[in-house]
Amino acid sequence: MLPEVSDWLRRRSWTAAERPLEALLTAKRAAGPAGTISVVLPALDEESTVGGIVRVIRRELMERLPLVDELVVLDSGSADGTARIAAEAGARVVHRDEVLPRLPAVAGKGEVLWRSLLATSGEIVCFVDADLREFDPAFVSGIVGPLLTDPSIHLVKAMYDRPLETDGAVVPAGGGRVTELVARPLLNLHWPQLAGFVQPLGGEYAARRSLLERLPFPTGYGVELGLLVDALELAGLDALAQVDVGVRHHRHQDGQALGRMAATIYRTALERLDRTGRLKSGQDLVRPLLTQFTRDPAGREFTAHTHPVGALERPPMVTVPEYHRR
User: Fold this and answer.
1) Which of 179, 134, 153 is nearest to 238 (CA)?
2) What's the rounded Cα separation, in Å, for the pair 190 and 55?
3) Is the pLDDT score of 265 beyond 90?
4) Are the CB atoms for 54 and 71 separated by under 8 Å?
5) Domain CATH code at residue 166
6) Is residue 291 in a domain?
7) Counting Cβ atoms within 10 Å, is residue 164 exposed (0-12), middle (13-18) or buried (19+)?
C-alpha cells in the first residue's frame, strides 16, 4: 500500500461513535446554510424495506434530533407500492420522470442520483440504498458527521461488514462479490490512492453539493466507482474519508445480475482511463455487450443472452439551465 494511503487511513477513517449526535447537531447549527442535509433514497420496487428506512430516519434524525432537513425517495419507476409506502412513512416522494422532464430518463441508479440534485436543496447530500434491512440511523449520521465537523472533507463513504445471507445461510464476509472481484482490483491497479476504501461500491455515502454538481454521473451501476474516481481527480485524496457504521443487511442479486453490474463497472473504469489519456489514443475501449448463458427448460443446452453494457453519463448538474432556475 502506498505510504500516502496508509497515512490517509489513519487520518481519514473513523467510526460513527467518534462523533456523538449532540456534537453533530452543534456543528450543524454553527455551519448555518452550509450544514443543511438532504437524504436521498433511490428506489425501484423496494416496498418491503423503504418504509422502515424512512421511519427510522424521520424518528431518529428529524423528530428526535433535527439533523436531517429533507428526506426524499426518488422513485425510478416502481411497479409495486414503493411510492405509496414511502410517502405514508413520511418521505417526500419524487418520480424520476418528474425531474428535468425535457430530457427523457434512462434506466439506472446513477440516473436517479443525478436527477436528485435538482429535486433537493441541502448543501450536504446523503445517498442511502432503499433495500437495507435492520436499518441503523448511523448509516446517515455517521457519514454526514465528517462533513459537518471538517470543512476540508468533501465526500464520505460508509464502510461496514457485509454478510452474504441466502437460503437461510449466512456467510459473514461473503457479500460485496463485485467489489472484491472487479472494483477492488481495478482501483488497486489503476487508482492505488483509493485502495484504502473498504466499500468503494457501497451505496451509502454523503458529499457536498459543491462537489457533486461538478461531477459527471454514470447512469447505471458504474456510478459509485465513477464518482469516487472523479472526486479523487477533482478534490484530491485528502478531501475523501470513510466511516464505520456497523453491519449492512440487504437484498442480494443473482449471479447474472452481478455479471452485468461487473461489466458496467469495468467499462466505467475504462472510460476514465481513456478520458485521462491513460489508454492509447484511438484504441477501441470495449465491446459494449455482455453475453451470458442459461440452460433451456429441458436441461439439454445453453441459450445465449446478450446485454448492452451502458456508459451514458449526464453532464455536471451545474451546466444544466434548469438547475440554476430552480
Assistant:
1) 153
2) 40
3) yes
4) yes
5) 3.90.550.10
6) no
7) middle
Centre a 10 Å sphere on the Cβ of residue 134 and count the other Cβ atoms it contains.
12
d(CA 139, CA 132): 10
Cα-flanking dihedrals φ and ψ of residue 192, to 5°?
Answer: -60, -20
Please report where in the chains the cell 478531501 appears, as a residue: 239
> All 3 cell numbers of residue 275?
478520458
Domain count, the chain: 1
Q: How confident is the model at residue 276 (pLDDT cuts 50, 70, 90)?
A: confident
Question: 13 in a domain, yes or no?
Answer: yes
Relative to beta strand 240-247, strand 155-161 is parallel
* Residue 285 within a domain: no
| Three-class DSSP labels, 184-198 | HHHHHHHCHHHCCCC
| Strand-pair partners of 157 | 205, 242
- Whole-prediction pTM: 0.88
Closest CA to 126 of 218, 213, 207, 36: 207
Provide the domain limits for residue 233. 7-176+196-254
Residues whose CB falls within 8 Å of the CB of residue 276, separated by 6 or more in sequence, listed in order:
233
User: What is the grid cell recorded at 123?
Assistant: 448543501
Q: What are phi and psi of 302, to 5 degrees?
A: -95, 145
Q: 141-159, pLDDT tens digit by residue?
A: 999 999 999 999 999 999 8
**Residue 41 domain flag:** yes
